[in-house]
Every structure is written in structure tokens, then in C-alpha cells.
From TrEMBL:
<comment type="pathway">
    <text>Amino-acid biosynthesis; L-tryptophan biosynthesis; L-tryptophan from chorismate: step 5/5.</text>
</comment>
<protein>
    <recommendedName>
        <fullName>Tryptophan synthase beta chain</fullName>
        <ecNumber>4.2.1.20</ecNumber>
    </recommendedName>
</protein>
<dbReference type="GO" id="GO:0005737">
    <property type="term" value="C:cytoplasm"/>
</dbReference>
<keyword id="KW-0822">Tryptophan biosynthesis</keyword>
<keyword id="KW-0663">Pyridoxal phosphate</keyword>
<comment type="subunit">
    <text>Tetramer of two alpha and two beta chains.</text>
</comment>
<dbReference type="InterPro" id="IPR023026">
    <property type="entry name" value="Trp_synth_beta/beta-like"/>
</dbReference>
<dbReference type="GO" id="GO:0004834">
    <property type="term" value="F:tryptophan synthase activity"/>
</dbReference>
<dbReference type="InterPro" id="IPR006654">
    <property type="entry name" value="Trp_synth_beta"/>
</dbReference>
<feature type="modified residue" description="N6-(pyridoxal phosphate)lysine">
    <location>
        <position position="98"/>
    </location>
</feature>
<comment type="function">
    <text>The beta subunit is responsible for the synthesis of L-tryptophan from indole and L-serine.</text>
</comment>
<keyword id="KW-0456">Lyase</keyword>
<dbReference type="InterPro" id="IPR001926">
    <property type="entry name" value="TrpB-like_PALP"/>
</dbReference>
<keyword id="KW-0057">Aromatic amino acid biosynthesis</keyword>
<dbReference type="InterPro" id="IPR036052">
    <property type="entry name" value="TrpB-like_PALP_sf"/>
</dbReference>
<comment type="similarity">
    <text>Belongs to the TrpB family.</text>
</comment>
<dbReference type="Pfam" id="PF00291">
    <property type="entry name" value="PALP"/>
</dbReference>
């Protein structure tokens, strides 16, 4: 594999204004600039503040069951002709990688002296994680969720309410994640003095993409060390699904300087990129501005954001974090779409071979991995070892998957 040319900031940070090459930055109303500056300062201070790092580390370890396991999926490996290692983020408290970011931002909220947090959520995982952190740290919590997602992720709506959060169904636009994010931004503008907006992915205006990445990058730091402990060497490739991009950057970031480790991000191809019904912003989009940052966006000729589609609520987003846009353009990570059907087939495979029900988002990572095995085997001349981020568990998706496979009885269907 040829070594890509990386700018000096590779593997660390964007420039001081939040740019990754031509992506990122801050495109926000005047009213939010002071709040973003305050957040940037709090986050930078926290990065080097030993007491913050110690408290964050204790919360991850003692509350969230982190570090997560690295698991050798042997039956799956035998079936697919590659050695598959799964980073078990599904075993974290609340069932996904999202808890890492949320605990970090909730702790920052406390440090900034704000009593209220708001969040947007698609699959509900980020909403549940935020409601959990708010209960744990005694913060008021409001979660915005597209009405369509409140229906396909009803279980997570109930979980958030049990945890004491207010869930607001958003009825504008496509009634999915991007609309929830718009509503949350409106709330933030109106209540910025006493509210922190916990964005759930490596998206949004600076400093969110860098800050969220830094809170989740432990995934890759752990997995890198776990791989070395297990095999005495690094995996040939690392794979993850890409919605806004947090679980992918979380696992990629520590490997970016390792030129021999290939990085693969799998986007939601929905019904197929050629049908227009998909959420593959890098493969099927173009450069534009969404939710405060320049990045790849699904948009029409007038720059209006197009509706996205994916069977997976957490990947159903018409943009992607700016660091991914940059990693794509410089060729350090490769991105490809995975259709709903391919993801569901991988979902079933993991259930049957390993007794693990994955989140449908994570099933995209596995499906994409299956597609790259033949080429990677040919390139290496041997069986590849591929580290896959199992970003979450499938409890929230049981109804969607049950319907998809036609295995629900009578009135449940
Ligand atoms: C389990 C899981 N994986 C992946 C994602 C996609 O988000 P991101 O791309 O930020 O990791 C989500 C979003 O809700 C999720 O719940």
C-alpha cells in the first residue's frame, strides 16, 4: 500500500479554525459564536487537565464498561475466509460507542456550569446515551428526534423517557435525523446561556468534529493495543460504518499514522446509490455546507439538502463529518456504499455464526468487510486480518429486523 501524503496535522487536530483541508469550519448564526468559543476553550482546557481526564477515565471504566473487548470471531472467520476481529462497542453501557462522547460532553457541561443538555438522535442510541449521562450527572435533558425515527425506534423513545428525558418528535422535513438536528440548533440558539448541545457525531461546527473524535478515539487506541497484545502486529485493515462518522473516526484515528493499515468506511447505500434512495454522502454527494460545516452533502443543483434513505436510522443522514471528507480526498481512507439488503444479510450472518445481534448500523460495517475480502486477499497473497467496529447492539432493531425477515407473529408484525 502506498503511503499517503498527510498534512502535518494528520492524526491530531484540524487547524485552529477547525479546517480539515477545505472541509469543516464554522457556518453558524452570530448568536452561537460565543457559545462555540466558550466550548472550544473548555474542551481545550479539558484535554490537558489531569483532573478532567481522570474523572472521564473513571466514568468510562466504572460506569460504562470500557475498555470494550476485542473478540476473535472464529466461526464467522471460517465462513468468510478472513480473520475477523470485532471491537465490541455493543457491550458498552447503553449498547453503543455513543456513550463515550456523551460522558465527555456531559462532564464538560458541568464544568461550564450549565444545567441543561439537549441532543438530536436518529437511531435513539445517542439520545439514550445523553439521557443516561444526564441522569447520572443530574442535568435536565431534552432530546429531538424525527417523528419517523420515533416510530422505528420506539423502544429507545421509551428508554429515554424512563431515564427522565423529554423526547420531542420533530415533524418538519423528512422527519428524520437532519430535521432533529435543525430543531436542536434552534433550541440552542434560544437557550444558549444555560444549555449545552451534545452533538452525537463528528459533525457540526468547530469544535464539535474534533471534540467528539477526541472523546471516542479511545476505541482505536484500545483496539490497536489489543491487536498488538493478541497478534504482535496490527490488523491489515480496519472497517466501520459511517453515518456522521463518530464510530469510524473513533476506531480509525489511532491507526491513521500506520500506513500499512487500510481504513474502510462503509456508508448506507439504501436501495442502491444509482436509485437516489441512499445516505451515502461521500460516494453519492458533493461538497456543500450542512449543520455548520463544509463537507460532503447530498444536495440538489440549488444546494438544497436532499432526503436520505437507509434502513438504519443511525446512518440515515445526508452529510458526513468533515474529517472523513478530508481523509477521503487525501486517499487515507476509502469509502464505499452498502445496500440495505447487503447489511441485512450480514446482520443475519453474525446472528447465526456468532450469537451476536448487531445494530443494523454495525451490520453495514460487516457487510462492507465481506465485500473487500476477495480483493484484499489477492493484494496480500494471504488471508487478511480485518478489525471491524461492532459499534452497537441490535436490541433497538429487533422490530425492524423482525419485520424485514418476516419472523414476527400476528399483531406484532
Ligand atoms: C450503533 C450505531 N452505530 C453507528 C451509528 C452512526 O453514527 P456515527 O457514524 O456517528 O458512528 C449510530 C448512530 O446512531 C449507532 O447507533
Amino acid at each position: 500500500m502506498s503511503a499517503p501524503t498527510l498534512p502535518a496535522n494528520a492524526g491530531s487536530s484540524p487547524d485552529s479554525a477547525g479546517h480539515y483541508g477545505r472541509y469543516g469550519g464554522r457556518f453558524v448564526p452570530e448568536a452561537l459564536v460565543a457559545a462555540l468559543d466558550e466550548l472550544d476553550l473548555a474542551y481545550r482546557t479539558a484535554l490537558t487537565d489531569e483532573s478532567f481526564q481522570a474523572e472521564f477515565g473513571t466514568m468510562l471504566r466504572e460506569y460504562a464498561n470500557i475498555p470494550s473487548l476485542l473478540y476473535r470471531a472464529e466461526r464467522l472467520s471460517a465462513e468468510v475466509g478472513a480473520r475477523i476481529l470485532l471491537k465490541r462497542e455493543d457491550l458498552n453501557h447503553t449498547g453503543a460507542h455513543k456513550i463515550r462522547n456523551v460522558l465527555g460532553q456531559a462532564l464538560l457541561t458541568k464544568r461550564m456550569g450549565k444545567p441543561r443538555v439537549i441532543a438530536e438522535t436518529g437511531a435513539g442510541q445517542h439520545g439514550v446515551a445523553t439521557a443516561t449521562a444526564a441522569a447520572y450527572l443530574d442535568l435536565e435533558c431534552v432530546v429531538y428526534m424525527g417523528e419517523v425515527d420515533t416510530q422505528r425506534q420506539a423502544l429507545n423513545v421509551a428508554r429515554m423517557r424512563m431515564l427522565g428525558a423529554t423526547v420531542v418528535p420533530v415533524t418538519s422535513g423528512s422527519r428524520t435525523l437532519k430535521d432533529a438536528m435543525n430543531e436542536a440548533m434552534r433550541d440552542w440558539v434560544a437557550n444558549v446561556d444555560r444549555t449545552h448541545y451534545i452533538i452525537g457525531s463528528t459533525a457540526g461546527p468547530h469544535p464539535f468534529p474534533a471534540m467528539v473524535r477526541d472523546f471516542v478515539r479511545g476505541i482505536g487506541v484500545e483496539a490497536r493495543q489489543q491487536s498488538l497484545d493478541l497478534d504482535g502486529k496490527l490488523p491489515d485493515a480496519v472497517a466501520a460504518c459511517v453515518g456522521g462518522g463518530s464510530n469510524a473516526l473513533g476506531i480509525f484515528h489511532a491507526f491513521v499514522p500506520d500506513d500499512d493499515v487500510r481504513l474502510y468506511g462503509f456508508e448506507a447505500g439504501g436501495d442502491g446509490v444509482e436509485t437516489g434512495r441512499h445516505a451515502a454522502s461521500i460516494t453519492g454527494g458533493s461538497s456543500g455546507v450542512l449543520h455548520g460545516a463544509r463537507t460532503y452533502v447530498l444536495q440538489d443543483e440549488d444546494g438544497q439538502t436532499r432526503e436520505s434513505h437507509s434502513i438504519s436510522a443511525g446512518l440515515d443522514y445526508p452529510g458526513v463529518g468533515p474529517e472523513h471528507a478530508w481523509l477521503h480526498d487525501i486517499g487515507r481512507a476509502r469509502y464505499a456504499p452498502v445496500t440495505d439488503a447487503e447489511a441485512m444479510s450480514a446482520f443475519q450472518l453474525l446472528c447465526r455464526t456468532e450469537g451476536i445481534i448487531p445494530a443494523i448500523e454495525s451490520a453495514h460495517a460487516l457487510a462492507g468487510t465481506l465485500k473487500i475480502i476477495p480483493a484484499l486477499t489477492a493484494e496480500l497473497g494471504r488471508k487478511p486480518t480485518i478489525l471491524v467496529n461492532l459499534s452497537g447492539r441490535g436490541d433497538k432493531d429487533v422490530h425492524t429486523a423482525g419485520e424485514y425477515f418476516g419472523i414476527l407473529d400476528g399483531e406484532q408484525a
